Amino acid sequence: GAPTVFFLSFVGCLLCYPASDNSSAGITFLNGNYLGHPMLYFDEQDIAELRQKAVGTHRHIVARIKHAVQTMLQNPDEYLPPWDPEEYGSRWNEIYGNNLGALAIFCVLYPDDIPAMNLTKEYMERMAAQ
Questions:
Q1: How many Cβ atoms are within 10 Å of 26's Cβ, its own excluded?
Q2: Based on the number of CB atoms within 10 Å of its own CB, is 47 exposed (0-12), middle (13-18) or buried (19 or more)?
Q3: Residue 127, C-beta contacts closer than 8 angstroms, at least 6 positions apart
Q4: Per-residue pLDDT tens over the stretch 11-43
Q5: CA-CA distances (angstroms) from residue 29 to 26, 39, 41, 59, 66?
Q6: How many CB atoms lie within 10 A of CB 7?
Q7: How far is CA 109 from the centre of its chain?
Q8: What distance in Å separates the CA atoms of residue 65 and residue 52, rounded to the nearest whole number?
């Protein structure tokens, strides 16, 4: 459904972000000027600021996100969405939708964390299979 498409697009953009070198091309899109790809609510400068805040004023928030991601990495079978659409559909928003947000922002803050990136990719594959 629409929520799945939104989250898959959002996380897909986050995963592709480091591969984008063309930040000079602007795209006009509904009252906004987005530089480069992907079209997110923040740009490269915002990400640098988020990373600074992650070790400063927002470190208490990032500590909770890190803890959540480390828990998911330690028990992936418990946190990955199931392949079975029946089981997935009945619990997707309450569990899987919320976990994906934590994984996504973690990958923005720490793009070099390969295990987290791999978990996020598998998470998205399972969600796309629904």
A1: 11
A2: middle
A3: 4, 7, 8, 81, 88, 92, 96, 100
A4: 555 554 444 444 444 445 555 555 555 556 777
A5: 9, 9, 12, 33, 33
A6: 21
A7: 10
A8: 15
Average pLDDT, the chain: 77
Find the mean pLDDT for residues 67-92.
86
Distance CA 65, CA 121 (A): 18
Please report which helix (H) or strand (E) contains residue 28, including its range. strand 26-28
Of 36, 11, 10, the residue nearest 23 (C-alpha): 36
Residues 45 and 14: their CA atoms lie apart, in Å, by: 15
List the alpha helices (DSSP H) in the chain: 2-16, 44-54, 59-74, 76-79, 85-91, 98-109, 114-128
Any idea which residue has 């939708």 for tokens? Answer: 97
How far is 110 from 117, CA to CA, in rounded Å?
9
pTM of this prediction exceeds 0.85: no
